[in-house]
Amino acid sequence: MSTHLFRRFVTIFRVLLPFFLAWLVSFLPLGSRAARQARAARRLREALEQLGIVFIKVGQVVGVRTDTLPPPYAAELARLQDAVRPVPIHLVKPFLEREYGRVLSELFERFDPEPLATASIGQVHRAQWRGREIVVKFLKPDTLQLLETDFELIRRMAGALRRVSGTPIWEDILTVVGRFEAGFREEADFAAERRHAIRLREILAPFPDVVVPETIDELCTPRVLALEFVDGCRIADVEAVRRIVRQPRRLLDRLVHMYAYMILCEGYYHADPHPGNFLVLPDGRLALLDFGMVQTLRAETRQALADLVRAALRGRTDEVVEGFYRLGLVSPDTPRDQARAAIAEIGQINVLQSNTKNRIAAVGEAVERSRVRFLLPEDLAYAFRLIQMLEGVASYYQPGWNVIADGGAGIQAALEDLVSGVASRRAEKRPAGASAQAPGRSVVNGARLRPAESPVRRLFQSVQAWLSPVAERLDSVATPEAGPAESGPGSLPVSNGTAAHAPRSA
């Protein structure tokens, strides 16, 4: 191990040691257990903040699952969305002036010295340019060097544990680490993020209740991204959202429909549905933010996913099992009967167990008992992580909410879009001034479609459920580390760690 890697390893150990000690003490019968647990949670949050990008992102991803974390940990990790030290304006100005080759006061009518939001990778300032309210995001110094060091450490540790334990999970972790590292490097390329924003704006144009901010191309560089300012409240601000949206369930349906459409119909999707990446606007529309983390799926993978989901919704168990093999979710040498029994048991657990934390534990035990080797193909790693994060967002409004069981209407709507191509024509056919149909509730011949009530439709939950313990372990080791969530309450940085476009006060 090189000197700089060893120094970083020592730093990580030293910074995390107070948390480990506090965590051990929390199990001792001394004083208030709640107070000891709160102290350990605070130490964990402080350690993650100090260690930077990769570790903050781990905390952000884990912290999203408020329905599975002890309350003290959920509360402390939630603070990672807003607690990142900003780069001071006296360093911001010369950086941007070098990028633009002009003095900021000549370029902008106003440039706010206080950041709108801050993340580990980037920082966002609000400004006025040619009479327009915009946000300017830039890449923080030394970001790439720190990412490279931490990912190298993760690879080495995972490789050592793979050799020692011989457990297949470490192969999956190494695969995901490579995928996430590549994604993170792309996130640090703001030119790529600009392209993603433009493409997603085009893809989601048929959704009148979804807003993707427009890029200000004249002000964009490989290290700076300028976008129109979007004013709204974060989706995690439940009280504020409920004052705008009377039925939050429709908001969740809209999220599912939008993501299912991107994945199944376009094969090009926003891959970081972090709570800080969604704003609810005063008129009830949903704004999508931060486009550094975008993934693609091959046409054959999209078709296989669509077939599997359709089979699950229709209760066709054998086709669901076949879909697992077709997608590479089950080791090909596993006997069909054995895989079918395992998937059926997991589906039954999901039917009977509504508590998310208990369901995850029960599914993990069932997977171990089955001895079926479930796999996580590289091209689906982000898609399944996405399921976890969407469920985390939904848990703010409905603990235990499940993408398939509770978001079936949105998925079914996307499947209909795939078959009929109506999404590309929806905006054209809607009469001027007509209100948008409630997202996630497709209408055919005047009847609202609802997901079939067959218990087998929950079988596809097994994808999410058995992956929950795996995905959580992968996230805790190899999630793309977008830095700390932004410090601006109105919007957070997600993928590339650059804040979204929300006001400081939501």
From TrEMBL:
Single Gene Ontology MF annotation: kinase activity
Keyword line: Kinase, Transferase
PROSITE patterns in the cross-refs: PROTEIN_KINASE_DOM
Pfam families: ABC1 (PF03109)
Cell membrane keyword on record: no
Source organism, top-level taxon: Bacteria
Protein kinase domain boundaries: 110-444
InterPro entries noted in UniProt: ABC1_dom, Kinase-like_dom_sf, Prot_kinase_dom, UbiB_kinase
Region (Disordered): 426-447, 477-506
Family that this chain belongs to: Belongs to the protein kinase superfamily. ADCK protein kinase family.
Protein name: AarF/ABC1/UbiB kinase family protein
Organism: Chloracidobacterium sp. N
